[in-house]
Amino acid sequence: MTTFSELKQSSKEKMDKTVEALKKDFSGLRTGRASTALLDGIKVEAYGALTPLNQVANVSVPEARLLSVQVWDKSLLKAVEKAIRESPIGVNPVNDGISIRVPIPALTEERRVELTKVAGKYTENARVAIRNIRRDAMDVIKKMKSSSEISEDEQKKFEADIQSITDAAVKTVDEALKTKEIEIKQV
After folding, report:
1. What is the pTM of this model?
2. What is the mean pLDDT of residues 90-114?
3. Left (φ > 0), alpha (ψ -120 to 50) or beta: where does 33 sit?
4. From CA 30, how far away is CA 163, in angstroms rounded?
5. Distance, C-alpha 9 to centroid of its chain
6. Residue 70 contacts residue 57 (beta carbons within 8 Å)
7. Within 13 Å of residue 107, how many CA atoms lie on the same side as its CB?
8. S-S: 145 plus which of 42, 95, 103, 155, CB 3.0-4.6 Å?
């Protein structure tokens, strides 16, 4: 049997993880400003396996619109360049034989609108996940009430507590979306 405080804590932790996942998704959206997170999802064909880029190279941001990729094993330069070029982020890396420079072009208005829509989809998915967590918690509360573990008054109080946690998580998600939209439009 779980207590309400455990249920409340568990629900809050799950919602917090959902918000963090959304922020991680947002960091991968290209906004015209260089960020090492842009290359996080890229896998390189190295040593006979697909390897995350950050395990074969160091990525840095020397300028606002430039990423620098220092590959540790120079024999992988071409493979890293190819992986970046073929990735969905839409950049054109430059291999100088020592390192790879990735210029980040300015966003077109069309791309800004597209990125705003993608950010909206990520946000809606996060809202759905938060509502599912709330629904699961509410189901547990109803079961506690039906098995006479709690009174009707306690049920209403617990449901109100879960709803307030949910409202706070949704508000955080909405604020993250507003921040991302401003970031997309400014650059």
Report:
1. 0.70
2. 85
3. beta
4. 34
5. 22
6. yes
7. 20
8. 155
SS (H, E, C) the chain: CCCHHHHHHHHHHHHHHHHHHHHHHHHCCCCCCCCHHHHCCCEEEECCEEEEHHHCEEEEEEECCEEEEEECCHHHHHHHHHHHHHCCCCCCCEECCCCEEEECCCCCHHHHHHHHHHHHHHHHHHHHHHHHHHHHHHHHHHHHHHCCCCCHHHHHHHHHHHHHHHHHHHHHHHHHHHHHHHHHHHC
pLDDT in tens, 144-181: 999 988 899 999 999 999 999 999 999 999 999 999 98
- Its sign, for the CA torsion 109, 42, 37, 99, is negative
What tens digit of pLDDT does each residue of 137-152 get?
A: 999 999 999 998 889 9
Q: State the pLDDT at residue 32.
A: 65
Residues 72/44, Cβ–Cβ less than 8 Å? no
Instruction: In whole angstroms, give the CA distance from residue 171 to residue 111.
Output: 26
